[in-house]
Amino acid sequence: MRQQHDLAVHYLPQRRNSPHDTIAGPHATRKKNRSRSGNASWLRVTMDFASMGWAIGAAVGVARGNPNCPVVCITGDGSYLMSGQEINPSPRRKVCGVVCVVLTTAPDGMVMHASAWPGGADRLSSCRRSTIG
Amino acid sequence: MAGRSRSAFELPQVDYRLMACPWASPANVIDSPADLDELDFDEILARKGPTMLDVRIDREEVPPMFSGSKPWAR
Q1: Which residue in B has a C-alpha nearest to residue A11's C-alpha?
Q2: A112, A117, A127, A128: which to substitute to probe chain B, counting the most B Cβ within 10 Å?
Q3: Which of A46, A86, B9, B61 has its CA 20 to 30 A from that of A94?
């Protein structure tokens, strides 16, 4: 199953006339950054490695801020293993429909593909240094 | 890798559907686009609390963030 393509083809067009928020982490396309689509829906996207795990907590926060608007969180399995427990306030606060879409590949696909890309290993090393300090 | 450090990327096999059990929340495993079509999104988006969708994607599917001509350009 192709991840972004199938989600875009099968999910987002169905909901384009219904107000909802979509929070996407590094697995989304680069060209759209916090763009508005359809009737009243937002697509908030962060990119690159610093954003891994960001989408989950952001989805719960957006749902708390606008409790009448369903929120869809699109994140990867690596990100969910990092920050998945941030979704805990969602059931406790009964916020409106946070749909957590976990794209499961078994390897951390973003790191795996980045390692194979020219210059990717150096970039990953620099990210690791900046994170660890 | 030309002597450069290699980042680990293998993850354990995890059933993310079961991670919704502590909240008694609905969860679905999506193996194909047809599985997505069968979901009632109106019901899912209307309910209070989280819903988990475990979407099994291809291992070799390259994230679009690497599909640009200069993915590491600043």
Answers
A1: B36
A2: A112
A3: A46
How far is the C-alpha of A100 from the C-alpha of A36, rounded, in Å?
20
CATH topology classification for A3-107: Rossmann fold (3.40.50)
Q: SS3 for B49?
A: coil
Q: Which residue of B has its CA nearest to A25?
A: B65
The CA distances from residue A49 to A2, A6, A12, A110, in Å, are: 21, 23, 25, 8
- Kindly indicate whether the ipTM for this predicted assembly is greater than 0.95, answering yes or no: no
Spell out which residues of chain A touch residue B46, defining contact as CB-CB under 8 Å.
70, 97
- Where do the structural domains in chain A lie, given as residue ranges? 3-107
The residue of chain A nearest to residue B32, with distances taken between CA atoms, is: A1
- Domain residue limits at B21: 16-58
Say which DSSP state A84 is in: G
* Residue A109: φ, ψ to 5°: -60, -35
Whether B51 maps to a domain, the answer reads: yes
Q: What is the pTM of this model?
A: 0.68
List the one residue out of B53, B29, B67 whose CA is nearest residue A22.
B53
Is B8 part of any domain?
no
What is the tens place of the pLDDT at every residue in A91-130? 666 666 677 777 776 666 667 766 666 666 666 666 555 5
